[in-house]
Amino acid sequence: MDNPFLFLSKRYVCIECSNADRIIRLFINNKIELSELKYNKEYITGYIPCSDYKRLCILCKKARIRIQSGSYKGPAELISHLKQGWYYIFLLSITAIIYIYLNSLILTIQINGNYYYTDELITDYLKTKSITLFSKRKDCDAEKLNKDIRKDFEYVVWCDSQINGNNLNINLLEDYTSLNERYADDSIKSKVYGKIESIMLKSGTPLKKIGDEVVPGEEIIISESVIKNIYGEEITKVDETADADIRIAFTTKVIFSTPLNIEIKQKTNKIKRGLDIYAKTKFFSYQPYIYDDKYDIITEKVDIYAFGKIKLPIYINTTKYYTTNKISITLSAEEAQDLLLEKAELKDKEYILKGYNIIDKNTDFYIKDDEVILSVTYNLSGNATDSR
Question: 194, exposed or middle or buried, with CB in 10 Å at 0-12, 13-18, 19+?
Answer without folding.
Answer: buried
